[in-house]
Specification:
heterodimer, A: mainly alpha, two-stranded antiparallel ribbon, B: 6-stranded mixed beta sheet, 14 strands, globular
Chain lengths: ~260, ~300
C-alpha cells in the first residue's frame, strides 16, 4: 500500500473514531467531567480543607494531576475497548479486515482515536480544575510527554482487552477489577511516603503509580518517583503492548476464524 | 482467458475439529459470472472467508489475478470486493459515511471517494437515503448498501455471499440486472445463493460444493445438458378426460386435477413434438411451466450421488 493510501486509511479510522465518541458526547465527554468535578468539590474542597497539605502542597493542588491522569487513562482505555469490541460485535470490523489496510495502520488509527478522547476529557478536566486551584505547570514538556505516553499505553491495553473480549461483560471486567484499583492505589489521592515500607514497595509495582507521579512532577515539580525510570517504564510498556497488539492482529486472534 | 481466482488443494479444519474444506481446487476465469452452490454447511462461506482473508486456511494455495494472497496482500485485497451474507456495517452510522469510510480504507482521496460514493448509491437507489442512519433502512436496502460499499473501490473481482437472501422478488430482479451490468463491464463475479433460479439466470459457470468437496465444476450449459428428462406442468383450457394418455414413447403422464397434468419428457424429445401430440389429442394448452427449476433438479441429483 502506498504511503499516501496508508495515510488516507489512517485518517479515515481516526475520523470515524472521533465521530463515534463525539456523536455520543453525553456518554463519553460529559460524565467524566462531572465525576471529576465532584472529586474536586468533595475531596479537594470539602475534605481537602481538613487534610491541609500533602507532599508539600495544598491537598487540592496535590490531587489535580492525579485526577487529570485518571480521566486520561480511563477514557483512552474505554474508547478503544468499546469501539473495537463494538466493531467485532457488529462484525463491522470485517470492513477493515478485508481491506488492504496494514495491521499497524489499523492499530495506530485506534490508538489515535483513544488518545483524542483521553486527551479531550483530560483537557475538559484540566479546564475545570482551574476553577478550583491555580495551575502552574512546572515542566510542560515532561507533562505533555507523560500524558501522551500514558494515553498510548492505555489505548493499547484497551485494544488487547477488546481483541480477547467475547461479551460486553469482558470489556468491563478489566476496567472495574484491575484498572480502577490500580488507579486508586497509584497515588492519585495520597503520597506513597505516607505508607509503611511494605506498601510503598507494593505501590512501586503499580505502573500507574509512575505515570501519576511523573505527571505530578510535570505540573507541581515534585514527585515520589524517579522521572527517568518512569519514562523508561512507559517506553517499555508501549513497546511490549504494541508488539503484542501487532502479533494478535497478524494471527487474527478474536477477529478471524 | 486469464484466471481471476485459483484455489489449489484448499483445506480448512476449525478448532473444534470440523473439516469444512477437504482439499478443494477451483479456477474462475476473468470476466466470469460464477456460481458456487451447495447446501448449508457445505463450505461455501468458508471458501469465501478464505478468499476475503476473514478465515485462516489450514493449507492450500490461493491466488487472485495470478497473485498469491500471502505474498501480495495489498494487490490482491485491492482487487477484491466482498458482500457478506450477514449485515456487517455499523447500524448507527449514516449510509454515506459507511461507503465513504470503506473508500478511505482503500486509500481513495476524498474527492474521488465522494464521486464514487454518489455513483454507487445512485445506481443502487440509495442516494436519497444517504443521510439516514443505516439501521433505518429496509432489509433489501441494507443488502444494496453492502453492494455499494463493496464496489466503491471498483474491484476487478466481486464476491457475493447470498446477496438476495430475504429480498423480495422485484428487488431481487433489479439486483440481477445491476449485477449483470457490472459483469458485462468486466467485473468477475462469484455468487453463492440458495436460489438456483438465480444461479441459472446469471451464471455461466458453476461449482457445486458438498461436505467440503467440489462435486461438480463445469459450465452451466453443460451441466443443464446432463438432465436426461424434464417434468413440465400443463394447464388445459378444457376439462381433461379421466383416461387421458399421450401417444409418445418415453413420455409419461400424471393427471393432477381436471385441468392440470404433468408430462415427464426425456431430453431426446423436442417440446414441439409434445405440442404436436397434444394438438392431435385436441387438448388446448393454456400455459406450461417446468415443475422444478432445472438446476434444482440437477443440484439435488448431484448431492444425492
Amino acid at each position: 500500500m502506498f504511503s499516501n493510501h496508508k495515510y488516507i486509511a489512517f485518517e479515515t479510522i481516526v475520523i470515524k473514531e472521533i465521530r463515534r465518541f463525539a456523536r455520543i458526547w453525553l456518554q463519553t465527554l460529559v460524565p467524566p467531567a462531572i465525576t471529576i468535578t465532584l472529586y474536586f468539590v468533595i475531596f479537594g474542597n470539602l475534605i481537602g480543607r481538613r487534610i491541609g497539605e500533602m507532599g508539600g502542597f495544598q491537598y487540592m493542588e496535590f490531587i489535580i494531576p492525579g485526577l487529570i491522569m485518571m480521566a486520561v487513562i480511563q477514557n483512552s482505555y474505554s474508547n478503544v475497548v468499546s469501539s473495537f469490541f463494538g466493531q467485532k460485535f457488529s462484525n463491522s470490523v470485517e470492513e477493515l479486515l478485508v481491506s488492504p489496510v496494514p495491521n499497524y495502520v489499523i492499530l495506530t488509527g485506534f490508538i489515535a482515536g483513544g488518545m483524542v478522547r483521553g486527551l479531550s476529557v483530560g483537557a475538559i478536566v484540566t479546564t475545570t480544575s482551574v476553577f478550583f486551584s491555580d495551575l502552574n505547570i512546572q515542566h510542560p514538556i515532561i507533562t505533555l510527554a507523560v500524558v501522551l505516553m500514558t494515553s498510548i499505553v492505555f489505548s493499547l491495553a484497551g485494544f488487547i482487552n477488546a481483541v480477547f473480549a467475547n461479551s460486553f461483560d469482558d470489556i468491563s471486567i478489566i476496567p472495574t477489577f484491575v484498572l480502577t484499583p490500580l488507579i486508586y492505589l497509584g497515588g492519585v489521592f495520597y503520597s506513597v511516603q505516607m505508607l509503611p515500607p511494605f506498601w510503598q514497595f507494593v505501590s512501586s509495582l503499580n505502573p500507574i503509580f509512575y505515570m501519576v507521579n511523573t505527571f505530578r512532577y510535570g505540573i507541581l515539580g515534585s514527585s515520589d518517583v524517579n522521572v527517568f525510570w518512569a519514562f523508561m517504564i512507559l517506553a517499555i510498556f508501549i513497546i511490549v503492548l504494541y508488539s503484542s497488539c501487532i502479533l494478535l492482529l497478524r494471527r487474527g486472534t478474536g477477529i478471524r476464524t | 482467458m486469464p484466471i481471476a481466482i485459483s484455489i489449489k488443494d484448499l483445506k480448512k479444519t476449525y478448532s473444534n475439529g470440523f473439516e469444512a474444506l477437504k482439499g478443494i481446487s477451483l479456477e474462475v476465469e476473468e470476466g466470469d459470472f460464477f456460481a458456487l452452490l451447495g447446501p448449508n454447511g457445505a463450505g461455501k462461506s468458508t471458501t469465501i472467508g478464505v478468499l476475503s482473508t476473514l478465515v485462516n486456511r489450514t493449507s492450500g494455495v490461493v491466488s487472485i489475478f495470478g497473485k498469491n494472497v500471502d505474498t501480495h496482500v495489498y494487490e490482491t485485497k485491492l482487487d477484491l470486493g466482498v458482500v457478506p451474507q450477514e449485515i456487517n456495517f455499523n447500524q448507527f452510522e449514516k449510509v454515506r459515511d459507511i461507503v465513504m469510510a470503506q473508500a478511505g480504507y482503500y486509500g481513495l482521496p476524498r474527492k474521488l471517494a465522494s464521486e464514487r460514493c454518489e455513483k454507487y448509491l445512485r445506481k443502487l437507489g440509495l442516494w436519497e437515503k444517504r443521510d439516514d442512519r443505516s439501521r433505518s433502512l429496509s432489509g433489501g436496502m441494507k443488502r444494496r448498501l453492502m453492494i455499494a460499499r463493496a464496489l466503491v473501490h471498483e474491484p476487478r473481482l466481486l464476491i457475493l455471499d447470498e446477496p438476495t437472501a430475504g429480498v423480495d422478488i422485484e428487488l431481487r430482479r433489479s439486483m440481477w440486472e445491476f449485477l449483470t451490468g457490472i459483469n458485462e463491464q468486466g467485473t468477475t463475479i462469484i455468487l453463492t445463493t440458495h436460489y438456483l433460479e438465480e444461479a441459472e439466470q446469471l451464471c455461466r459457470n458453476i461449482a457445486i460444493i458438498a461436505e467440503g468437496k467440489i462435486v461438480e465444476n463445469t459450465s452451466m450449459k453443460l451441466l443443464l445438458a446432463e438432465l436426461d428428462s424434464q417434468v413440465f406442468v400443463f394447464d388445459s383450457a378444457d376439462e381433461l378426460k379421466s383416461d387421458f394418455e399421450i401417444d409418445m414413447e418415453g413420455v409419461s403422464v400424471k393427471i393432477i386435477d381436471s385441468h392440470t397434468f404433468e408430462l415427464t419428457v426425456p431430453a431426446v424429445i423436442q417440446i414441439n413434438e409434445v405440442f404436436a401430440s397434444l394438438d392431435r389429442k385436441s387438448i388446448p394448452v393454456r400455459s406450461m411451466r417446468n415443475k422444478t427449476n432445472r438446476l434444482e433438479q440437477l443440484f439435488l441429483t448431484k448431492l444425492n450421488n
